[in-house]
Every structure is written in C-alpha cells, then in structure tokens.
Write a structure and sequence with these properties.
Elements: H1 17-35, H2 39-72
Helix pairs in contact: 1-2
Length: about 80
C-alpha cells in the first residue's frame, strides 16, 4: 500500500455509526499525514489511520451482529 492510498474493504457492508466515526478519524489522520514534511511522523499517522480503518470494519461487524442478535431475540456475546 502506498502513502495516502485508501485500504480496500474486505467486503461490502453497511457501516455503523460507530464505524463511520472511526472511518472519519482515519480519513482525518490520512489528510494530516499527507501534509507532513517529516516522513517518520507521516508514516506513524498512516499506521494509526490504518488501525482506525480496521476498528471501523470491526465495529461495524460487531454492531451488525449485535443488531441481528437483538432482532432474533438472542443475546450477543462478544469476545474480549
């Protein structure tokens, strides 16, 4: 992956509100990284942005599972 290039989503799914917030943070971090002249700082911001993108995907997946479990009348048990 090159600097500033968005990650590809592993699958298409509806993004939860929490996931969207993580994604917005990731996009802000990537914008900040693009303006950095210090490559070490830029690289760290990109790594942090990638982490937030993973969090967005995971949050949306977990939120979808919880919503599905709620509609099915079962309790969703998440793992730490």
């Amino acid at each position: 992956m090159t600097r500033g290039e968005p990650r590809e989503a592993p699958m298409t799914m509806q993004m939860s509100r929490r996931g969207k917030e993580y994604l917005e943070t990731a996009q802000s971090l990537l914008r900040a990284a693009r303006t950095m002249t210090d490559t070490v700082v830029a690289t760290r911001l990109e790594m942090l942005a990638n982490d937030y993108q993973r969090r967005a995907e995971k949050a949306s997946s977990v939120d979808a599972a919880r919503s599905s479990a709620r509609s099915a009348g079962t309790r969703y048990e998440s793992y730490p």
